[in-house]
Specification:
The complex is a heterodimer of chains A (121) and B (1037).
Chain A lengths: L19 H16 L9 H17 L6 E11 L5 E5 L2 E2 L5 E8 L3 E11 L2
Antiparallel strand pairs in A: 1-5, 4-5
Chain B lengths: L1 H37 L2 H21 L2 H24 L2 H21 L3 H51 L5 H4 L3 H67 L5 H24 L7 H29 L5 H21 L4 H35 L3 H7 L2 H37 L5 H15 L5 H27 L3 E2 L3 E6 L4 H9 L31 E2 L9 E2 L1 H53 L6 E7 L11 E6 L6 E6 L14 E7 L8 E5 L5 E4 L6 E5 L5 E5 L8 E5 L2 E6 L3 E2 L13 E6 L15 H8 L4 E6 L3 E9 L20 E10 L3 H7 L7 E6 L6 E6 L4 E5 L9 E2 L11 E6 L6 E6 L4 E5 L7 E3 L8 E6 L6 E6 L3 E6 L9 E4 L5 E9 L6 E8 L4 E6 L1 H4 L4 H13 L1
Helix pairs in contact in B: 1-3, 1-4, 1-5, 1-7, 1-8, 1-14, 2-3, 2-13, 3-4, 3-7, 3-13, 3-14, 4-11, 4-14, 5-10, 5-11, 5-13, 7-8, 7-10, 7-11, 7-13, 8-9, 9-11, 10-13, 10-14, 12-15, 13-14
Classes of the chains: A alpha+beta (121), B alpha+beta (1037).
């Protein structure tokens, strides 16, 4: 109601900025922990993706990237020697927003986890 | 009855009107509610009081007055509705009315259950308290909403007015829209509040005026209608009544009222046909409505019958309706609790929908407009706790009730007089039905929360929109390049194959090799090579061999030891020789001493003898043609054994054997030298007698190197002893065809290396000789044709085991060879001239002057000794002749220089004459013609220890010993050795003072070699002997 007096944080605090390296580390840690030795099973994979995404989200949330909206995308596919290409495009403020992704490969599956962090001004 | 009928009629009418009224009130109540906060507080309080009062009134008066008021109000509302329809707005506001109808129907169906109703009656009072509290909260909230609403309303109303007119009839028919619709209606009411508020001032006033008018008119009509309907229904009604108890009268009356009201409505509508606004549609609708009313009536009558039998009070009904409202509200707002109910309602609704299609068409646009704003408040509604929801509902109910009461109050205040006049019998059913209508209508207020939610969300949306616009001014958004999240190339066929099959017992290994590292092939098979050698004659260890393996093996096995062993061998060789010599000396001396005594008688000149052990298997049957002592090492002797004709065990028959003896080691020869043919003459190398030279009848000069190791020579094991037969180290046989001898070599002589004129006969020191000799000296060889060849003896630094390709005469491994240096034809013109007369001139013997290497003396077959020099001027006497005649055909068989006076030499001839010559005179100092009794002189030699003594050996095996000191005309003694003929003789002796010995070596025909020592008289020199020789020289010249 007092919109006129709104103030915006146009830039995040440097320490609270979305750091892809850290997030990537989280992703790697979680995915490795959860997927190492896991065989691809079409029955379980949907739940697995969801839970993976959830745990990655929680982990990144706790990392203290304030005022960041997170999008976690998890893809698990079976590895049968096929070629896969996956790419993303974003319309965002490149100064504040960033993304981190990590790929985990297994004998039977591959898993791509991408976390997009978008700053909330 | 009439009154009753009238009441019924009126009831029916009121009922019908109530419906309308309710429809109308859908807008009005909201209007009023929204107005609440604006209105004064006392008014609200009044309202509450009024409500309480109302309920009390109802309870008290059994609804008579109250109901009448209600009816009035209904009528008034009805008028109001019509008025609005005239205004064109009515259409909108009748929609809730229709809804109410349905609601009411539902209520009635559901609330037959008595017990439930009673229970709810009990709950009534606490509920009311709660309701009050909620109401307060609700009001506050509503106030806020109103403020918002006011703002929004301004722009939205314009929109909605336009949208309202869009016909979309389907929405309404769909049962699932029910809930929404309720919400729509709420919204619409909210919106209407604004409109209403604006209108209220004037409208209310007008309405009131109009209502008064209309009321009056209508009531006239109603009375008429009542009468008519009564006639129709009276019979059935009365029957009903008669059955029913007195208590039920009210209910039945309510029923009747209802039916009557319906009919009233019907009639009224017929009347209303006259109204200008009524379109053709409405007429159809009315007809349908007629049917509907009848149906309703049927239903209601059925329901009422059952319910009436249970003696329901109106009060209870009223409470029921309240409860019902809660339920209905839950249905509409939550939509979750009462789905069955909703279904029932739907069923009912469908029926109604047919009837109200036309109306609905009118309302559709309104609902649609409401639909537009409605987004997500449903969810929020659902999230609210059930208690909160319930409380809200209750609050809403209360509010509605309060409004109702207020309105009723106001209506009453306005129309009470009129109503009381006309409606003297207000039916309890009227109140109940009106309450039902109210409650059902209030169900739409439930959705107000959703509306609020939507409001909030819209507010948020606007805020966000504003926010975004503000932010976007500050922020640049850019489209990022495409991030490649995953790029997994397809697995190639090979990798797939390896993945699936490559793991079993196989491993992948990679090697990178040089591109230029190519293979090279050779098609031909590799040649096998090995080295062999062959040698003829096969002297040692076979005729052929494999040098490399044996060499290597030898090197390997003995390589380390060779150095030591070679030194050891050289040491042992020298040491063993010394030891052997010592031992044999000892033995021989004892033997000779013994023999001296025994053989004293046999040989007068000898006082002892030594037998050399020549009885060796390979020497058997050989004659000794020559015995020769080394001039330097006087104990070294060689004996030349001629080839034998008799076969022996040893295959050396055709070979001449030369044995090298050490006279102190008589048991066996030191070396055994072998040559393929006869050996004519021999000599030792000067100094240490390490080389032996020999001339052969075939014109070759050969040499043996005694230093060669015995292992490289042919070895033969005979009996227990092993003998080494040395073949010549070097031979001029084949090599020197151009420069060699073509006649039998008669003599080989080492050219003395002493300088000319040096005379040291008493000092033949070994040391000096050895020193000077070395191994580079000249050798002279003379053949019968008078050709004198000079050879240089060359020692090679190392021998070649495989044989030298250039020096073909050199034995493999040999180190010493002869190089032809020059040749000299010694026989000159005189000899040719004279020899031609008699017989071919022959040179038989070569002697060098012992102290002058330039002068040589050659004995010829003419009894002459020619004197020559190898280089430089010729020496004065060319020939040494006989005393009386120049020459005689007699071979010079021996020439020997005196070891004490080198310028004196003796010449022995084959005719038995002996001459003593001095070098400087061609005529002899002395000549003894018949000393040997005409026998040819074979050998003639001076004694080594006494200058005046010499020995002559003649062909008749007589040995003549001359001592010129005693007798210079004839030999002092002559020994005839006829038993075992002597074939060769050599004088030996050492003139050194400390160990003076002298003797003669006699080679017997049997092959024995006997060393005879001269007696003391012949050995020990006397001082007068030199003088004797001097006197002879002086006497002669």
């Amino acid at each position: 109601m007092v919109e006129g007096s709104d103030t915006y944080f146009l830039r995040p605090n440097h320490q609270l900025k979305f750091k892809p390296a850290i997030v990537k580390g989280y992703i790697r840690e979680i995915v490795r922990e959860r997927l190492s030795g896991v065989q691809y099973d079409p029955e379980n994979v949907p739940e697995l993706t969801l839970s993976l995404a959830e745990s990655v989200k929680d982990k990144v949330k706790n990392a203290g990237f304030d005022r960041y909206k997170l999008v976690v995308q998890v893809l698990i596919g079976e590895q049968r020697g096929q070629g896969v290409k996956m790419s993303s495009r974003c319309l965002w403020d490149a100064d504040t927003d960033n993304y981190a992704e990590d790929v985990f490969m297994n004998d039977s599956l591959f898993c791509v986890v991408a976390v997009f962090g978008s700053y909330y001004y | 009855m009439h009154s009753e009928k009238d009441k019924d009629n009126r009831d029916g009418h009121s009922r019908r009107r109530e419906d309308d009224e309710r429809k109308h009130r859908g807008g009005q109540s909201v209007e009023r509610r929204h107005r609440d906060p604006v209105e004064s507080r006392p008014e609200r309080d009044k309202e509450r009081d009024r409500r309480h009062g109302d309920s009390r009134d109802r309870q008290r008066k059994d609804g008579s007055h109250d109901r009448r008021g209600d009816k009035d109000r209904g009528r008034r509302d009805d008028e109001d509705r019509r008025k609005r329809a005239d205004d064109g707005r009515d259409r909108r506001e009748t929609a809730p009315g229709k809804e109410d109808l349905r609601e009411r129907e539902r209520h009635r169906d559901r609330h037959k259950d008595k017990e439930k109703e009673r229970a709810k009656v009990k709950e009534k009072h606490p509920e009311e308290d709660r309701d009050k509290r909620r109401e307060d909260r609700e009001k506050e909230r509503r106030r806020e909403e109103q403020e918002r609403e006011q703002r929004r309303e301004r722009r939205r109303r314009d929109e909605s007015d336009e949208v309202r007119r869009d016909p979309t009839g389907k929405l309404h028919r769909e049962p699932r829209d029910r809930k929404h619709r309720g919400e729509h209606e709420d919204k619409r009411r909210d919106r209407d509040v604004q409109e209403d508020r604006r209108r209220t001032e004037d409208r209310e006033y007008k309405e009131e005026v109009r209502r008064h008018k209309e009321e009056r008119e209508r009531r006239h009509k109603e009375r008429r209608r009542h009468d008519e309907t009564h006639k129709h229904d009276s019979a059935s009604r009365e029957r009903q009544d008669s059955k029913q108890s007195a208590d039920d009268v009210r209910n039945s009356r309510g029923d009747r009222e209802r039916t009557e009201r319906d009919r009233h409505k019907e009639r009224r509508k017929k009347e209303e046909e006259t109204d200008i606004e009524r379109s053709q549609k409405e007429r159809g609708h009315r007809e349908a409505e007629d049917k509907d009313v009848e149906r309703n009536h049927r239903e209601r009558s059925g329901s009422k019958k059952s319910s009436s039998g249970k003696s329901l009070t109106y009060e209870k009904r009223e409470e029921d309706s309240n409860d019902e409202e809660v339920v209905s509200r839950q249905q509409t707002a939550g939509g979750k609790n009462g789905e069955e109910k909703a279904e029932k309602a739907d069923l009912a609704e469908q029926e109604y929908e047919e009837d109200f299609e036309e109306y609905e068409e009118d309302f559709e646009d309104v609902e649609e407009s409401a639909d537009e704003g409605e987004d997500g408040p449903d969810v929020d509604d659902g999230k609210e706790g059930p208690t909160a929801q319930a409380s809200k509902e209750i609050e809403a109910i209360r509010r509605a009730m309060a409004e109702e009461n207020e309105r009723a109050g106001s209506a009453r205040s306005r129309h009470s007089a009129v109503r009381e006049e006309r409606e003297d019998k207000p039916g309890g059913s009227e109140g109940s039905e009106r309450n039902q209508g109210e409650t059902s209508r209030r169900g739409k207020f439930i959705d107000f929360v959703a509306a609020k939610q939507r409001e909030v969300s819209q507010k948020v949306a606007t805020r966000q929109k504003k926010r975004s616009t503000e932010l976007l001014r500050l922020i640049d958004l850019d489209v990022t390049a495409t991030f490649s999240l995953l790029d997994l190339p397809p697995v190639s066929e090979y990798e797939m194959y390896i993945k699936s099959f490559g793991n079993a017992n196989a491993k992948q290994a990679y090697v990178q090799c040089n591109e230029d590292d190519t293979d090279r092939d050779v098609q031909t098979e590799e040649m096998e090579m090995c080295e062999k050698w062959t040698q003829h004659p096969p002297e040692y260890s076979g005729a052929c061999g494999d040098p490399n393996p044996s060499q290597e093996a030898r090197d390997k096995t003995s390589g380390e030891l060779i150095l030591d062993s070679q030194r050891l061998m050289s040491f042992l060789r020298s040491a063993s020789q010394v030891m052997v010599v010592l031992l044999e000396e000892d033995q021989a001396e004892r033997k000779s001493l013994r023999k001296l005594k025994t053989q004293k008688d046999s040989l007068s000149f000898s006082d002892g003898s030594l037998q050399l052990n020549a009885k060796l298997p390979f020497l058997l049957g050989r004659q000794i043609s020559l015995v020769h002592f080394s001039p330097a090492q006087k104990h070294i002797m060689l004996s030349v054994h001629t080839p034998t004709a008799t076969a022996s065990a040893v295959r050396l028959d055709s070979c001449a054997v030369v044995c090298v003896w050490n006279i102190w080691e008589p048991s066996r020869p030191q070396q055994i030298l072998v040559y393929g043919s006869e050996v004519q003459c021999c000599c030792f190398s000067p100094g240490k007698s390490s080389l032996v030279f020999a001339g052969t009848p075939v014109g070759s000069v050969v040499l043996w190197d005694l230093r060669e190791h015995s292992s490289t020579h042919y070895r033969l094991r005979i009996g227990e002893d092993e003998w080494t037969f040395r073949h010549p180290t070097f031979s001029t046989d084949a090599v020197m065809c151009g420069s060699g001898h073509v006649s039998p070599v008669t003599s080989v002589e080492v050219v003395p290396s002493f300088a000319a004129g040096r005379l040291r006969p008493e000092l033949p020191p070994l040391a000096s000789e050895e020193e000077s000799s070395g191994l580079s000296f000249q050798l002279a060889s003379l053949d019968e044709s008078g050709l004198l060849n000079f050879w240089v003896v060359v020692e090679l630094p190392r021998g070649n085991e495989a044989g030298s390709p250039t020096d073909l005469g050199l034995r493999p491994g040999g180190k010493v060879k002869l190089l032809h240096s020059s040749s000299l034809l010694t026989v000159q013109r005189p000899s040719l001239r004279e020899a031609a007369k008699t017989r071919p001139f022959q040179t038989l013997l070569l002697k060098y002057h012992p102290t002058d290497s330039n002068q040589f003396f050659i004995g010829t077959n003419l009894g002459l000794v020619s004197h020559g020099t190898s280089h430089g001027l010729k020496a004065p006497p060319q020939f040494y002749r006989f005393q009386e005649v120049d020459e005689r055909t007699a071979d010079v068989s021996a020439i020997h220089f005196s070891p004490f006076r080198p310028n004196l030499f003796l010449v022995g001839c084959a005719d038995g004459s002996i001459r003593l010559h001095a070098v400087s005179h061609d005529r002899p100092l002395a000549e003894w013609m018949n000393s040997t009794a005409g026998e040819a002189v074979v050998s003639l030699q001076w004694a080594q220890t006494r200058p005046a003594v010499f020995c002559v050996f003649d062909a008749a095996s007589n040995l003549h010993v001359w001592d010129m000191l005693k007798d210079d005309a004839q030999p002092v003694l002559t020994e005839k050795m006829t038993a075992d003929r002597v074939t060769a003789m050599a004088v030996f002796g050492d003139s050194r003072q400390q160990n003076t010995y002298s003797g003669i070596a006699l080679a017997h025909e049997s092959g024995n070699i006997e060393l005879r020592y001269f007696t003391q008289t012949l050995t020990v020199p006397s001082p007068a002997e030199e003088g004797k020789l001097e006197s002879l020289l002086t006497e002669a010249f």
